[in-house]
């Protein structure tokens, strides 16, 4: 099994911990220090949030200017409702609107900004309906 480690700069580690736990994710204190927290989205998806000075130690250049979109993290969801619930929790806990809800019938997605301006998405897809609609290529 591969693991995905997402590293992101944050202004305030404690604020980020509160935000991500409000979304239903857990924390792994084994990989936390004064400037970094470890958010566990799922067993194989980990987000390490680093305060600015720690973040700079990982870079081989300048950090992205504030207000730019350096990445977009997209998560799958088990239903439309899970997408909506995740966005509602994000907006209720310091997140912000990012883009409009996307509803293609066979695919449904939401997006939001976390408190540090990172873009997050969640989407649900009915693979069978998508294949029938010609929306995605299905393996044969």
From TrEMBL:
Domain VOC, residue spans: 2-125
UniProt cross-references to InterPro entries, sorted A to Z: Glyas_Bleomycin-R_OHBP_Dase, Glyoxy/Ble-like_N, VOC_core
Pfam families xrefs: Ble-like_N
Protein name: VOC domain-containing protein
Organism of derivation: Kineococcus rhizosphaerae
């Amino acid at each position: 099994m591969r693991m995905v480690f997402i590293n992101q700069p944050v202004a305030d580690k404690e604020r980020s911990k509160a935000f991500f736990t409000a979304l239903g994710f857990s924390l792994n204190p084994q990989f936390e220090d004064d400037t970094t927290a470890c958010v566990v989205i799922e067993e194989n998806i980990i987000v390490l949030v680093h305060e600015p000075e720690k973040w700079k130690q990982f870079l081989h250049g300048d950090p992205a200017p504030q207000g730019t979109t350096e990445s977009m993290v997209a998560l799958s969801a088990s239903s439309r409702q899970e997408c909506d619930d995740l966005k509602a929790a994000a907006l209720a806990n310091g997140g912000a609107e990012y883009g409009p809800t996307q509803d293609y019938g066979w695919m449904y997605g939401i997006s939001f900004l976390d408190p540090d301006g990172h873009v997050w998405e969640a989407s649900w897809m009915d693979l069978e309906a998508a294949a029938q609609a010609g929306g995605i290529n299905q393996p044969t």
